[in-house]
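Hi support team,

I'm filing this because I wasn't sure whether my run with SAJ finished correctly. The job status page said complete, but I'd like someone to confirm that the output block is well-formed before I use it downstream. Pasting the exact inputs I used:
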Amino acid sequence: MRERIENKQAEIAVVGLGYIGLPTAVMFANSGFNVIGYEIRREVVEKISSGTAHIVEPEINELLQKAIKSGRLKVTSDPEDIKGKDIYIICVQTPLREDKTPNLEYLKSAVKTVAKAMKKGSLVIIESTVPPLTTVRMAELIEDLTGFKAGRDFYMVHAPERVMPGRIFKELVYNSRILGGITKESADLAEILYRAFVKGQIFKTDSITSEMVKLMENTFRDVNIALANEFAFLAHQYGINVFEAIELANTHPRVKIHVPGIGVGGHCLPKDPYLLLSSAKEDFGLIEKAREINESMPLMAKDLLFDAFRMINLPPEEAVVTVLGLAYKGNSDDTRNSPAYAFIEVIKDDVKEVRSYDPYVDGTHKTLEEAVKGSDAIVIATDHSQFKWLNWEELRKLMRNKIIVDGRHIIDRPPKGFIFKGIGRGEY
Ligand code: SAJ
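And here is everything the job wrote out:
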């Protein structure tokens, strides 16, 4: 197996062609491996086969077309096509259920598909983010289904993805990588494999540690954002601009306060703290409290908006509100767990009409002007670059009442002629 990987003769199947699976399949194919991408959504397979990615990511279509043209990347939705491969890389989602417990059904179903297809000696890699202990449990599931013995008849590794949407192809190469093997040999083999394109450092450990590392990274960010959000909340009470305070605090060499805002979205940060806690018997409560703070941020934006309505005696039920940005982060089309939707949800029953506009995502309106015409308030929910350079003078003329609520600190100096409110902008 070692030589087969070193010589790039090892055949790879990537299971799940989403935000991580597709770029990973493309990278391995362009590094010289024969790769088959397996995806149950047929329409996605068709789109990818024609050389167009179903996700927005810089460089993806060029790199995908290169991989397909070279003949090294094929895609399928037929499980027969992934039989007998040397390596299986599972990149499926691990979302939360309504009650915030992990839903591992996609992962289990992918593992079952792999168990049916794999051969003795295969290396199975899970890139999905999973609760601690999951990789060991999935190895046991494979043992049950195949009769193989983990560590002897097959290798298994948790290799968490750590890339940020919008920078995936750079970060796949330059970020460091954690490889958690259920045996040392498993991690050693995965190291040779990932070296095909990873230029960052590679650290090897056991699978429970790597599962924990991945969850700790995102929980670190989530808890830090919650702290910044709490500072924003306090800044309103003390009547100061939290962004000025943060900038000044961050001049201290050991302080790096995050950015407060209307909420924390995406497929990772809102869920990973719950995955981290899900396998534990007890905890101190900090992580859950941080989640609670971040999940309450759309309500802070609502309070600011309704304050503004009160200032002009506008009954909320007569108000038309335009939400600018639906993606969970700037310059992206990704709307997974976007706080923009959470915000719309908390205001929609109290106002007359909610409109939305996003240059990357289908909203209620196709153009900014249409979305703003006759509206009473603009609420900025995403930090798209375009929104930094809006012609406020023109937009003001289109609006009925002139309210701005900045949920993403896009506006530094409030434009003239508006009632301006912003999360953390207690001074206005
Ligand atoms: N956000 C804030 N304040 C901040 C930073 C972010 O409110 O100071 C918000 C963003 O607006 C966004 C959300 O948090 O709604 C998450 O955005 P993000 O840019 O922090 O992260 P993701 O979800 O795009 O990617 C994260 C990354 N993890 C870390 O930076 C620790 C990425 O490296 C991971 O690979 C990814 O999660 C993942 O897949 O786990």
